Backbone:
């Protein structure tokens, strides 16, 4: 049974403002919740139709189907919703390749990029402050647990790049052919916004402009989606530097 | 002004059954409609708030905002909806690399894969009959015009692969490392369903099993999204064979 205050709290976590205020976020579905339980994330509370979770009983609240419908953000709710604490970002490891996002706005794209970082062993993802929040429920759903294995920091990207002593790679339509480019094990790879690419301010901090060659005809598609561009770039960096 | 029958027809095109019956599909938004007008696709009719299109006047019907709201499939409708004829698939060119999809179900994934084919100069995309329809409005929106430049055929994938004399490449978790594999300019690259990968029936027709190495730790993400896997595979094929 959920109290009015519990319902209000859980529902409020659909908004970034309240996630920041309470330092909490939600995960829906047994599989996702289990991945977060088995990670370094701290569980606040699970609200569930059945207690099938291997956690301290005080952390589980049994609820009814109608309660679940009141707090879910999904059209077709699963059987459980977990509330977890937002962790503090860890220190960024400058000796490895870092991925940086300049205002990526689509939750699906951010989710896919987090999964790609996990797949390709990128530990640190740095996001400009206007990048979509990684604890947005659509991002959490899209990452399939990869969120528990990638350290994500939101910061002033321009300052971060200014302070870095490493090579800053960026992707541009007319950049150096990435297939022939010499790439390094460390450095920062910047990907841009869906509509505008990398902003002028951030471009001024890029030291190596890379491009993914287009093999289609002249009338071909104007640009690659930012998540597929990330896939191709990480594939090239890892292939060449392992 | 739209008649009841016109409203019924346009609305019906949100369903595959009626798209097939009428051999028509819809494109929403001025940019998308213009791309289809400037392609080999045949225009049936544009329904628009303003006639800003460079086409025969008999092909344009001015409508009101409330009419547009009745026929749109978007939450925030643009100013125009175009109805185009579904073209007959062209003959498949077996001398080039062909991409084949084994039951890809998500419209966003299919849209991204069509854009990737366009970018990487893949002319032919072959889809199993259970793959999502490429004239689904979500796919049309996601392709950003690439749909006009890729020849898409829906057919019995097992028969198609059985009849082919070419190498059939497929992606598997434990396949040969794609970075070291010798790849060819022609052949068929098969990508599988989001949840189940390549089915057993189709796997029996695969002659070369490829894998994208995982660089993360052992607990890393279980699989790549099918669209990002396609991006990495096409990048490798094109890089090595141009």
Residues:
């Amino acid at each position: 049974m959920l109290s009015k205050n519990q319902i209000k709290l859980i529902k409020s976590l659909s908004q970034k403002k309240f996630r920041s205020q309470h330092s909490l976020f939600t995960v829906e579905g047994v599989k996702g919740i289990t991945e977060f339980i088995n990670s370094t994330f701290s569980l606040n509370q699970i609200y569930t139709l059945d207690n099938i979770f291997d956690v301290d009983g005080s952390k589980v609240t049994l609820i009814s189907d109608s309660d679940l419908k009141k707090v879910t953000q999904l059209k077709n709710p699963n059987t459980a919703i977990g509330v977890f604490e937002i962790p503090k970002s860890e220190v960024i490891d400058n000796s490895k390749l870092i991925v940086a996002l300049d205002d990526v706005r689509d939750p699906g794209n951010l989710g896919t990029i987090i999964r790609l970082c996990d797949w390709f062993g990128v530990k640190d993802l740095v996001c400009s402050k206007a990048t979509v929040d990684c604890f947005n429920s659509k991002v959490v759903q899209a990452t399939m647990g990869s969120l528990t294995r990638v350290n994500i920091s939101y910061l002033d990207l321009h300052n971060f790049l200014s302070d870095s002593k490493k090579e800053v790679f960026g992707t541009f339509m007319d950049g150096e052919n990435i297939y022939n480019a010499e790439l390094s094990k460390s450095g920062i790879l910047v990907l841009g916004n869906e509509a505008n690419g990398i902003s002028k301010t951030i471009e001024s901090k890029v030291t190596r402009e890379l491009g993914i060659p287009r093999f289609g005809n002249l009338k071909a598609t104007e640009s690659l989606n930012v998540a597929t561009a990330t896939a191709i770039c990480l594939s090239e960096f890892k292939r060449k530097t392992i």
Q: What stands out?
A: The radius of gyration of chain B is 20 Å. Chain B has nine helices and ten strands. The mean pLDDT of chain B is 94.
